[in-house]
Design a protein that fits this description.
- The structure is a single chain.
- This protein is an all-beta fold.
- The chain is 3% helix and 55% strand.
- The chain has a 22-stranded antiparallel β-barrel. A 6-stranded mixed β-sheet has the order 1-2-7-8-5-6, with no helix packed on it.
- The radius of gyration is 25 Å and the shape is globular.
- The N terminus is likely disordered.
């Protein structure tokens, strides 16, 4: 707290708000960039950690009005899977989806009722830039950030287009699904500075997931799609950013989503969940800004950034008696509101050091209505973090640079309202991190780091019955992760390769178990520990005009509990990865082939509670695209047509008990920009 107060005092003579460079990246001066077409993920150097990945949406193989789920699937070394509730979960290095933080313009979205973000209901139409950091690269991202950080920039991105632009897109698939989106970007300059106004909207309607070869629905007459997987959604956004000539900046961002969808029921399970979401909505608004890099009161330079965000959502669930989805036998109506304040600051320490601090305070309210009852829940979490980065060596020769990062954090949580159930005790946890990066002549970088961070149980984990599918457990304790990693990043010709070894140990890990008969409900409990040890291999190599990129994760994960029979980890394969290639073809065509593969993994059978092995598999995809100029210069002057095939072999691969991945899908995209 003292470090942060000093920053506030030192910057008190400054007026306005400004940009805070991500704490784990090298500081760079803002610059106006021409339109950037990204065909590969761009690595970003971190201090003491594996490279982060930067992604822009210019040329991703996603339909118009995509969800964040479809965008994040393009990132290497990161797993996305659908659970039995139809939610898209993140996982990396053996982490649970609640251990990955998701931020929008600096505001965490993962501090709500469930403490994780369902990427399938977060629209990506508004996204300008996205960064993903594996592991724990900083203490400044707020509480509950253990297994990585997904940082989404909408209004706070410093990328300034050179001119106004617009985009209209239309997509369709072979099953009759359609989607469309439009965006508009208007940069302009006044005497005070530069402005950027962005706005857009999207619509998507799908009849459902295609059935893979060999998958048969129990409902007679169903041939093309999985039953109850249809969806419809609308989204829109608006963002305004101001960049003053003195460095002062501010931004206001708002985006919303509304839709409805079904949830695929587990096949071959008499205790399957028959649910639909008749209403899903979410609205996020963020106001942020900063002072810019300027002289501080006590000497040196520094800046201060502040963000205030509100995240409001509503989820309605209808439960049905059978697979025909005609008779409703239960419902759940949940209203969420999370209000978050974040303050960040940094200050130089001489010519080679820098002190950075962050404070996050968030309060979540959840109102739940069930048949015959209603309840209100409230949780408040706070985090104070500080770290220093030192440039110990900067020169030329065999060793070009050596950077050291040291940081710590103090987090706490309490639940003032618990719906009439026993209260979750007030908990406090500490975190710490030590990392270093050594730069060698020729561009090779060697890094290593060790860290500890805690996660508090979510309100849903503690108190939700999920329409009587779960037994609440208000006695859950916080889990904490101790992580270590070391790796090498080296150039190979015009490409780059990275090898990272990691070891994570989660103590008091929260896992799902099945209660003994006749109850058979699920319950979340604390296990002694989950250990994951593995290696990540990543590389990108241009071969002439062909770009080849690949990633491979090998990991060994085990759960140990002295009071229970050891179990297999759920949804965490021992091997997964991808290979992607992009290449030019005659007559102006551009092609691509993708391969994604997953090794064996385990799930908990909903009927028996036993560990069930799921075989792995490989899925192929391909695309063909072409661009034309429809007129000379200006907005909407170019046309792109793209045809893509997913799961080309129509293989039936299961990512969860009774839940196969979609079969072969053919998509068409037309885009004018």
């Amino acid at each position: 707290m003292l470090a942060f107060c000093c920053l506030l005092l030192g910057l008190s003579a400054s007026v306005g708000l400004s940009y805070q460079e991500p704490a784990d990246t090298v500081r760079k001066k803002p610059a106006a960039l021409e339109e950037l077409v990204v065909r590969a993920v761009k690595p970003i150097v971190t201090v003491g950690g594996a490279s982060a990945f930067e992604l822009r949406l210019d040329s991703l193989r996603v339909p118009p009005a995509p969800s964040l789920e479809l965008v994040v699937r393009e990132l290497p070394a990161l797993r996305v899977r659908r659970n039995s509730r139809g939610e898209a979960e993140l996982s990396a290095r053996g982490s649970d989806s609640r251990q990955v933080a998701v931020l929008v313009d600096g505001i965490p979205l993962n501090l709500a009722w469930d403490a994780r973000v369902d990427l399938s209901v977060v629209p990506a139409t508004a996204v300008d830039r996205l960064e993903y950091t594996r592991g724990l690269a900083t203490m400044l991202q707020g509480p509950n950030a253990l297994g990585g950080v997904l940082d989404i920039r909408v209004g706070s991105s410093m990328l300034q287009p050179s001119g106004k632009s617009a985009q209209l897109a239309f997509g369709a698939d072979a099953l009759g699904g359609v989607s469309t989106s439009g965006t508009l970007s208007l940069p302009f300059e006044t005497g005070a500075g530069r402005w950027l106004v962005r706005t857009g909207a999207g619509f998507a309607d799908s009849p459902g997931y295609p059935l893979a070869r060999g998958i048969v629905e129990p409902i007679p007459g169903t041939r093309d799609t999985r039953v109850n997987t249809d969806s419809r959604s609308y989204d829109g956004f608006a963002a305004v950013r101001f960049q003053g000539h003195s460095g002062t900046w501010g931004s206001v961002t708002g985006f919303g989503f509304r839709g409805s969808r079904g949830i695929a029921a587990e096949l071959g399970n008499s205790n399957a969940r028959f649910w639909r979401y008749p209403h899903l909505s979410r609205a996020v608004a963020v106001a942020s800004g900063g002072t810019g890099d300027r002289a501080a009161l006590f000497g040196g330079r520094g800046d201060l950034e502040a963000s205030l965000g509100v995240d409001v959502g509503r989820t309605e669930i209808d439960s049905y008696t059978g697979r025909d989805y005609t008779a409703v036998n239960g419902f759940e109506d949940g209203h969420d509101r999370t209000l978050t304040l974040r303050l960040l600051g940094d200050h130089t320490l001489g010519s080679r050091g820098e002190l950075r601090s962050a404070f996050t305070l968030a309060e979540t309210r959840h109102d739940e209505r069930l048949p015959g009852e209603s309840a209100r829940y409230r949780q408040r979490v706070a985090s104070l973090g500080a770290e220093t980065v030192w440039r110990l060596i900067e020169g030329r020769g065999a060793i070009e640079s050596l950077r050291l990062s040291i940081g710590g954090a103090y987090d706490n949580a309490r639940t003032p309202e618990t719906g009439g159930r026993p209260s979750f005790p007030r908990y406090s946890e500490w975190g710490g991190r030590l990392g270093a990066t050594l730069g060698l002549d020729g561009g090779t970088r060697i890094h290593g780091g060790v860290s500890r961070r805690a996660r508090f149980p979510a309100l849903r984990e503690l108190y939700s019955g999920a329409l009587d599918r779960f037994a609440p457990n208000p006695e859950l304790r916080p889990e904490n992760l101790v992580g270590m990693e070391t790796g090498v990043t080296a150039p190979i010709g015009r490409g780059e390769v990275q090898v990272v070894a990691f070891r994570h140990q989660v103590n008091d890990a929260v896992v799902r178990v099945t209660l003994p008969a006749p109850d058979r409900r699920f319950m979340r409990v604390n296990r002694d520990r989950i250990r994951s040890t593995g290696v990540e291999l990543l590389g990108t190599v241009p071969i002439g005009a062909v770009t080849l990129s690949a990633d491979l994760t090998l990991q060994s994960i085990g759960i140990s509990d002295t009071a229970a029979v050891p179990r297999q980890p759920e949804g965490l394969p021992e091997v997964y990865g991808s290979v992607r290639t992009r290449f030019p073809l005659p007559v102006g065509l551009f092609g691509g082939v993708d391969l994604g593969f997953t090794g064996r993994q385990f799930c908990i059978d909903p009927g028996t509670g036993a560990d069930t092995r799921l075989d792995g598999g490989a899925l192929f995809g391909a695309e063909l695209s072409r661009r034309w100029s429809v007129r000379r210069g200006g907005m909407l002057s170019r046309l792109e047509a793209r045809v893509s095939l997913e799961n080309l072999g129509d293989r039936a691969v299961f990512d969860q008990c009774g839940l196969p991945l979609p079969g072969r899908s053919l998509r068409l995209l037309l885009r004018v920009f």
